[in-house]
Amino acid sequence: MAPDLGEGVPALHYRAVLAFASAVSFASIVITFFIWFPKEDRPLGALVLLPVFIPYVLIPLRLYSQRLRAGLNLAIAMGGALFVPGIMLLLYAVRWDRRWWLVGNLVLTLLMQLLLVVVAVETYIPLPRLPHSRLKFLVSMAYGFFLFGLFWLFYRPVPLRIEENESDALRYLESSALSAELDAVEHEGLYAESIGGLGPSSNPKCTLGHGWKNPVSEPGYVFEYRGVQPSRKSQDCTRFEGFTITARPAVYGQTGVRSFRIKNRDAEIHFTSENRLAMDSDPGTRLRHLPN
Questions:
Q1: Cα gap 26→101, rounded to integer Å
Q2: How far apart are CA 100 and CA 92, in angstroms?
Q3: 3-class SS letters over 156-189
């Protein structure tokens, strides 16, 4: 006969499944944490996420120390509290990140939350009612609601701000590239030394739109314009036969996720979700307003 946890419930099956789901959840969350948190913010981020990490360690500890109800309560609370956040983070990754292994990791995390809830509820229902058991259950549920509230408080503004910043960056890149192309038509197909406050400039008169506001000082993205060799003199200015404009999040993962790159006569803006400059080999999003 299978050993029980003190209340007539077979222990081997449910305890092993819940411990497995807790361990996988813990590992998956840690992986996501290391992927999305910048290195310099990880110590503080790990401290903030301790209320999420610790319960997944406590669940198997409670079950294997014969504290069945406490382990089940915590499993239901954590699985329920992080199921909706798991869906939202998955949608976030699909829209802005798209690394298949990260998306797969989040799918696995989501499935583990569902497994925790289903198995824990199935185990909990047949248990006899004991004094204060309902109160302890409600306390665990309150902790789950607390975690969900914290997630919603800090998560909701982030995707909206990132989406706005990325849209602004794309608009700026497209308008700057269009201005550079139109200016080059008037200068024998040669591109300006600098645009606005971007890129080095030996002379203000050699800068296209020298009165423009420098977007480098704006929150969200850092832009850089560079002329591409070869170059030659035109009307006392150094002009180039090509150019590139790059945009990179000022704080990766917080002000933006994707980095962008556009070059002369390219009908696409190339982007990457990795924490680096975009390259020509990265995927691209097609422009609509750039002349051929």
A1: 17
A2: 13
A3: CHHHHHHHHHHHHHHHHHHHHHHHHHHHHHCCCC
Q: What pLDDT score does 118 carry?
A: 92
Cα torsion angle, 180, 186, 189, 194, sign = negative
State pLDDT tens for residues 143-184: 888 888 888 777 765 677 788 888 888 888 888 888 888 888
Q: Which helix (H) or strand (E) holds 233?
A: strand 221-234
Instruction: State both tokens at 173.
Output: 């890149």
Closest residue by Cα to residue 258 from 245, 266, 244, 269: 269
Angle between helices 11-36 and 68-92 (to 10 degrees): 40
Two tokens at 51?
């209320």
**CA–CA separation, 76 vs 114, rounded Å?**
9
Tallying the residues shown for the chain, one arrives at 292
What are the residues facing 252 on neighbouring strands? 256
Would you say 225 and 259 are in contact if contact means Cβ atoms under 8 Å apart?
A: no
Structure tokens belonging to residue 212: 């423009």
Q: Give the alpha-carbon dihedral of 67, 70, 76, 78, to 10 degrees.
A: -110
Q: Return all residues near 206 (Cβ < 8 A) that are at least 6 apart.
A: 192, 193, 194, 236, 237, 238
Q: What is the pTM of this model?
A: 0.60
DSSP state for residue 289 in the 8-state scheme: S
User: Hey, how many other C-beta atoms are within 10 angstroms of the C-beta on 63?
Assistant: 25
SS3 238: strand
Backbone angles phi, psi at 228, to 5 degrees: -105, 125
Partners of 269 in the beta sheet?
A: 285
106-117 per-position pLDDT tens digit? 999 999 999 999
